[in-house]
Amino acid sequence: MLGSFDNEVESFEGKICIDQLGTVYVADTSNHRIMRCPKGATQGSVIAGGNGAGRQSNQLTSPVGLSFDRH
Questions:
Q1: Per residue, what are the HEC states of 6-26?
Q2: Which of 2, 8, 21, 62 has its CA 20 to 30 Å from the CA of residue 39?
Q3: What are 42-60's pLDDT values in tens digits?
Q4: Is residue 70 in a domain?
Q5: Pairing of strands 16-18, 24-28
Q6: Between the CA of residue 49 and those of 21, 22, 29, 70, what are the distances in Å?
Q7: Alpha-carbon span 6 to 57, nearest angstrom
Q8: Residue 31 in 3-state DSSP?
Q9: Could you give the number of structural domains in the chain?
Q10: Cα separations (Å) of 64 from 11, 13, 16, 39, 58?
Q11: What pLDDT score does 32 carry?
Q12: Containing domain of residue 8, as a range?
């Protein structure tokens, strides 16, 4: 999941959240997106942002953290 391709994260920088199923979520600040990698997967997928920095509904600007609840 760490790398420079579209389905990989440039750096983790401590912006990781892991849910009860072992799915890893990463705030990929440099690429303005949130990535998800299910337990055991070899690649992640973009679940938010990923279309450059901005204010549109499909964009994020340098996400710096994550928080989830179980609901």
A1: CCCECCCCCCEEECCCCCEEE
A2: 62
A3: 888 999 999 999 999 999 9
A4: no
A5: antiparallel
A6: 23, 22, 10, 22
A7: 20
A8: helix
A9: 1
A10: 12, 9, 10, 22, 17
A11: 92
A12: 1-54
CA distance 2 to 21: 20
Locate tokens 């998800």: which residue? Answer: 36
* CA 40 from centre of chain: 16
Structure tokens given for 32: 């303005």
Residue 69, in any domain of the structure: no
Domain-embedded: residue 61: no
Q: Token pair for residue 20? A: 């009860």
Look up tokens 């938010």; give the residue. 48
DSSP 9: B
- What digits encode the pLDDT tens for the residues 23-49? 999 998 888 999 999 999 988 899 999
